[in-house]
Amino acid sequence: MNKNHELIEEVEEGIHSYSNEKGWVKPKEKALLDQLEWFKDQKLGIMMHWGPYSQLGVVESWALSDEDAEWSRDEIDWVSDSEVFKQQYVSLNKTFNPVRFEPEKWADVASENGFKYLVFTTKHHDGFAMWDTQTTEYKITGSECPFHTHPKADICKELFDAFRAKGLPISAYFSKADWHVPTYWAKDMQRGTHMWRGPSYNPLEHQELWEDFVQFTHEQMNELLTRYGRIEVLWLDAGWVSANNNQDIRLGEVVERARETQPWLLAADRTVGGTYENIITPEQTVPSDVMHVPWEACITMGSAFSFRYEDTYKSGRELVHLLLEVVAKGGNLALNVAPQPDGRLPRGALSSMNELGSWLSTYGEGIYGTRPVAPYFQDGFAFSQKESVIYAFHLQDEKVPTPEAFILPYFNEVQHVELVYPNLALSFKQTSEGIHLNLPSDIKELDKSYAYAFKLT
């Protein structure tokens, strides 16, 4: 804590703020610089929040924090006693049995629909580990969890192997906070049973207890970084766990040790800044302007990061437009899909993923491996660049007919303009207003996508 024993506010209703581009620290190591260029090429990752909490269809972890009760317990309508609820939540490990877990199918769906990497929640703030950790029995392979006898019980191993087999690398989400281990939310401290997102004690006043927590955290991260194959990104949540709040877990010790065998390893110590926030991570939002540093927007396909019964999902059109805005502003999109408690992906999510994938199969050349180029994103247009080729996308509003002629707000000289699909050269002229285009009269039959794509050379 700081002097007033308060957390620096970086999270509001479970949504993290994001670091300022100006504070980003460029790595010096060539392996990391090369890896960041690789990362910027990928553009689309699939993020998955999954754990015992999916059984209730409520927000992950946050309802355990009494300080966050006002917003996080909205859907908890079966019990009024907070202590009873917290015990019910903690005991969800005893009923979590996703016997229809489909790691290979998840990987197939992601690969077939244009996703390029996986961001998976190995552990959220509630402390339940989705891998076979040796640090705690509160885990998917623990004896109290009925799934522990399943041949695919080590979920992280099965998922990581399945995704890598499809050529999709791994970004391992890990919460630095742990609301289950007794060295973070320790009993019989000043806070009593009224919990918040921080530790139940002041680390400066209980240094031995805090050191025990640091060692526990190091051991868990070391397991993930040494026993589970190649990891591209260590994606760290709980930004309040930092030296800024006197909660220093000495992250550098873990990362630098891991880089001895995985020199490419990127760290995303979100909202903390400094040497180990190689990637900035806006949550549930897209920055208003382009950012010329590595960034990744983590945004939900449904209404929340966790599984919701009868949830609604963004349409294919919404997903395409979202991806175009993110790419035009220089970022990647980590699109969150929350699996069901039985181990399957929801049908509504699959439908929207298929729509996005169908669009990417035709227009992906203007997405993957590109970099931002002015004017970036404005007035319904998105731009990207790959080597000497400029891609311009006109986002279609399904309620507004596309005009037969319009102006692309691009002002550098071009020699040739064509539709990406169906590979058709267009007549055009350049003026001080931009590039005047005339679309074929049968364009609606030729191209029924969510955004017209033009190639400028």
Structural account:
The chain is of the alpha/beta class and about 450 residues long. About 25% of the residues lie in helices and about 20% in strands. The strands form 4 sheets. Strands 7-6-5-4-3-9-8 form a 7-stranded parallel beta sheet, sandwiched between helices. It has a 6-stranded antiparallel beta sheet with strand order 10-11-12-18-14-15, with helices on one face. A hairpin with a 2-residue loop joins strand 1 and strand 2 (about 15). Helix 6 (about 205-225) runs parallel beside helix 7 and helix 8 crosses helix 9.
What is the topology?
Blueprint: E1 11-12, E2 15-16, H1 30-42, E3 44-48, H2 69-72, H3 82-90, H4 103-112, E4 117-123, H5 155-165, E5 170-175, H6 207-227, E6 233-237, H7 251-259, E7 266-269, E8 296-300, H8 316-328, E9 332-336, H9 347-363, E10 377-378, E11 381-386, E12 389-395, E13 405-408, E14 417-419, E15 424-425, E16 428-431, E17 434-438, H10 443-446, E18 451-456
Parallel strand pairs: 3-4, 3-9, 4-5, 5-6, 6-7, 8-9
Antiparallel strand pairs: 1-2, 10-11, 11-12, 12-18, 13-17, 14-15, 14-18, 16-17
* Main sheet specs: 7 strands, parallel
The percent range for strand residues is 15-25%
Helix coverage percent: 10-25%
Approximate shape: globular
Q: How many E-type strands?
A: 18
Summed up, the helix count is 10
Could you give the order of the helices and strands?
EEHEHHHEHEHEHEEHEHEEEEEEEEHE
Our Rg estimate from Cα atoms comes to: 23 Å
The main sheet orders its strands as: 7-6-5-4-3-9-8
Structural class by sheet pairing and helices: alpha/beta
Uncertain parts: 1-8
Termini Cα gap: 55 Å
Overall pLDDT score: 95
